[in-house]
Amino acid sequence: MYRPKKTVVTILLSATVLGHFMALDVYGASTADHLVSKSAVAASGLTLDQLGSVSLKQSVHVKLTGTDVFTQPGGNIFVYTLRYSNSSGNRMDLIDYFSKISTPSGTTIKGKAVTRDADKRTVPANSSLSVTYYANIGNSTKVNGIKISMFGWDFNSANYQKKLGQFTIPAQYSSIIPIGKSKKITINNLPVTAKVDTLQRYKINGKVYVQLGLRLSNGGTKMLSDPGYKAYLRSAGGSTYELVPDSASSGYKLQSQESRVISYWAEIPSTMKTHGMTLQLAQEDEVLKIQLPVQSFSLPAVAPDVAVVNGKSAKIMMKQQPVTVKAERMQRMNHNGKVYMRVAVQFANGSKKVLSDPRYKAQLKSAGGSVFDLVPEDDTGSSFRIQPGQKRTIYYLAEVPTNLKTEPMTMQFTQEDETLNMMLPVKTFKLPAVTADMSVPDYGIRKIAVNYQTIETQLKYASVYTENNTGKWNIQFRIKNLGEKSVKLPAYELSIYTDEGYSIPVNAKAIGNVTLKPMEEKLIDLDVDVPLHMKQNTLQLELTEPATEGKISFPTALYKIPYAQEGKSHPGLENIIENSHGTFGVKLSSYQRLPWGDKDQIVALISIRNTKTTTMQLPVLKAAINAGMRDLSSTSQIVVQDNQTTLAPNETVELYVLANIPYSYHFNQLRIELQETVGENVTKFLSLNFNPFNNAMSLIPAGDAYPIHTPGKKAEVRERLTTIYHDSKSNLMYTELEMTNQEKRQSKQSQLVAYYKTPDNEYFEAEVSQSSDKTSPKGKNLVTVWSKLPLNVNTSQLELYVGEGVANGKMADVGEELTGSINTIRLALSPRVVQPATNLQHVELFPYQLNITRGEGTLSAGKDMLNIVIYYDLLRNGDYETGSTDHKLIMEVIDPSGKSIEKILTLGTDLTVGNNKSYFMNLNSNLSKIINSGTVRINLYDEFQGRRMLLGSQVYPFIYEEQANKPDSE
């Protein structure tokens, strides 16, 4: 403590239970011997104030307000405080009055003012003044029976002194504050409440010490500094021992209204009785070279150093801050053949300030008396900061012998004190029973600490499916920051611990270096392969901090992995899944396996619904697909029809997942996993596992329309015509589809993909031709579909499978190279034979209609050229858009000799659209021998892909014209 300075201190003894005593009020009289005495009353509830006052002169009185005794060699010091009250209009000179002390043994001593009050000489008019006096009373140790007599100078008396009155301290009175009571005293002119808080006995290194805690509460408006009081422990037998403050209590400062416990220590004999001890506070008068008593307190029974009961907490003052401490658990852990005890201690800061590291030492003590140093697992220096109201768990580690009995054990905190030059005990805790590193139960929660922030962890989901001789595990690991600050997770190491003792590493890139904001939660997907010869139902996930030099890395947590086979998805049934992006309802809407070139193509339609109340962003996804034992991922593609990238609350998006497979390959299980790739990290978004089901499609009746629902390409499609073009080697199946735009705007129609299918499940890929131009609302697009078939195929039983083309993950535009098709339907056909017309007045080559109204020819005598002219009407249905067509109109003219000449006519060019049109042509033939009129036959053919179909035939006349007679001159 600081050396005491000269400070004015007024000692006020507050009203306490003083015990039963006699009180005498003494008043001054006209003669020195005249005393006024009152009857004895019960002391209970009485104070020194009730001794009354002594009148020094008119309007001037004095009262006894405090007494105490300080025992010391060379005579005990008795101090008493008198309060002078001057209600007159003039000042009062203290030099005119003095006091004498009379002990019960008969000794009389004149009281002298202590140094700090020696300069108090007058009491101003209408004011009061307290003065403390002292006297050496020899061997007397009690104030009981002491008489304090007041005198004034009277030069008319024999000894020039006049006794004005007397205070007699009753035999039952004690100046010592009773046990458990507080006392309001004045320190450095500030009101301070003092109370004995604790008294404990400790045995340290074979010696016995007493630790006393004195609570001081500053009731003033200014900061209180350590006044440098001395503290003494006095036994019931009279022995006195100096109490020394520890380092934390030396030179203390108390802010206004602040309360604090000052801790004192004293070594005492091991045989000393500790009942009935008192605390004596004293202050040195440097001028008088004596210790003046300040206040004495009766002390409670000494409490032994009792360890805190297992499971209970204790409040400890750390750096004058209340902290609740609890030993939570103790674990026995093995590492590299050595045994360690790991103790978890929770610190809860109950103050309004940040708690820094108290620098406690910790020791583990066994029942047999063995002591082991406990070392914090992490650096607890500058990083040890516990916010007000915050709880934090610190882990301590000690290496112990393998055969050590671990029950019961205690943990003791000690602190080095520089002032006392010794290790002081802080608190001892009984430790809970030792436990092994227990695994977190199925789906249980384990809280771990990262940079003194609490992180909640949970193995939220696990499932396994088999492939070859391997269990393919998918684990979903949840982490949540419960702290008030962002925290960066260390690069944890993850592994699967098997019942056979193997440790299988898990790719932990997804969890390494993750930063979590306060209350932020993330889901981490983990994949690991476990050989099937190992037990799959006893696996555990081990979470370990990265190894660092000089530090033992124990598992941070061990989680039981619940055994569950990956669930099957069923068409039309929604399953709820959760991932780092949110919670979704996932449904397998449809599944198809259809031909694609010389392969098959599988198409799964997956619906994803946002079940949350906030809009979420869909990540860029790719598909990993396994059909039985075959990986189809390299051929996979994902199609979102409208390129949707966000999902509003309860909104659904549909994804088409496509992959190619050999058409002869059969499998019983299909697994689709949608994955998100960020840099090198690949995480699962969702997975579906199902048995491929019969993808039978309902049949659209012949002539009925079916809808296309693709956003921006909505249409209605129906069969317009199906027919067959024959030749001697094969048949050509030909279908015209009418596709009507159902959008409200001009739009490009879906590129169609088609196959003809026989009842024997034989598929024939078809060519498709359609317009690439935008189609107006309600406008129609004529789509032509054809395929070459063997002659043995029964064309009357064919069905047409029609889908919408996709190109590299998006809806294809007409003309793009296709990589697949979606939304395939099954359309019944009504093939018909086109019967040739008997005339050419109504010839249809859709969307054109040709009407030849008449035809005629002219043959000149002796010529081989027949001049033919036809008159026609050509109409085009303007509602239809068509693509490039391979249809050709062939006009065949057969002369009377049976010889024919063909002409390819282009509708719209050679034959123009309109009414009353004419077309001329000349036919060169061997007609010179014809000498009269006759007819020619005109046949019209529809030629497609080199195959002809007769549309109609008609005979037209020609006129023979003779040459005019030659002149005679010729």
Textual characterization of the structure:
There is one protein chain. It contains no helices and 74 strands. It is an all-beta fold. Strands 12, 13, 14, 15, 17, 18, 20, 21, 22 and 23 form a 10-stranded mixed sheet that branches. Strands 24, 25, 26, 28, 29, 31, 32, 33 and 34 form a 9-stranded mixed sheet that branches. Strands 66, 67, 68, 70, 71, 72, 73 and 74 form an 8-stranded mixed sheet that branches. Mean pLDDT is about 85; it is low at about 1-45 and about 965-970.
Distance between the termini: 164 Å
Helix content: under 10%
The radius of gyration over CA amounts to 56 Å
DSSP summary, beta strand count: 74
**Unreliable parts:** 1-45, 965-970
Query: What do the pLDDT scores average to?
Result: 87
Summarize the main sheet. 10 strands, mixed
- Described by the principal axes of the CA atoms, the overall outline is elongated
* Beta-strand content estimate: over 45%
- Label the structural class: mainly beta
Give the count of helical stretches: 0
Layout of SSEs?
Blueprint: E1 53-57, E2 60-70, E3 77-86, E4 92-93, E5 97-102, E6 108-110, E7 112-113, E8 122-123, E9 127-136, E10 147-153, E11 161-168, E12 176-177, E13 183-187, E14 190-204, E15 207-218, E16 224-225, E17 230-234, E18 240-245, E19 253-254, E20 259-268, E21 278-285, E22 290-298, E23 303-304, E24 313-318, E25 321-335, E26 338-349, E27 355-356, E28 361-366, E29 371-376, E30 385-386, E31 391-400, E32 409-417, E33 422-430, E34 434-435, E35 445-450, E36 453-467, E37 470-481, E38 487-488, E39 493-497, E40 503-506, E41 515-516, E42 521-531, E43 540-544, E44 555-560, E45 574-579, E46 582-596, E47 599-610, E48 616-617, E49 621-627, E50 630-631, E51 637-640, E52 646-647, E53 652-662, E54 670-678, E55 681-690, E56 699-700, E57 706-708, E58 715-726, E59 730-741, E60 752-757, E61 763-765, E62 767-769, E63 780-790, E64 799-806, E65 820-828, E66 843-845, E67 848-860, E68 865-876, E69 880-882, E70 888-894, E71 900-905, E72 914-924, E73 934-944, E74 947-961
Parallel strand pairs: 12-22, 14-23, 25-34, 56-65, 63-69, 67-74
Antiparallel strand pairs: 1-2, 2-3, 3-9, 4-8, 5-6, 5-10, 7-9, 10-11, 13-14, 14-15, 15-20, 16-19, 17-18, 17-21, 18-20, 21-22, 24-25, 25-26, 26-31, 27-30, 28-29, 28-32, 29-31, 32-33, 35-36, 36-37, 37-42, 38-41, 39-40, 39-43, 43-44, 45-46, 46-47, 47-53, 48-52, 49-50, 49-54, 51-53, 54-55, 57-58, ...
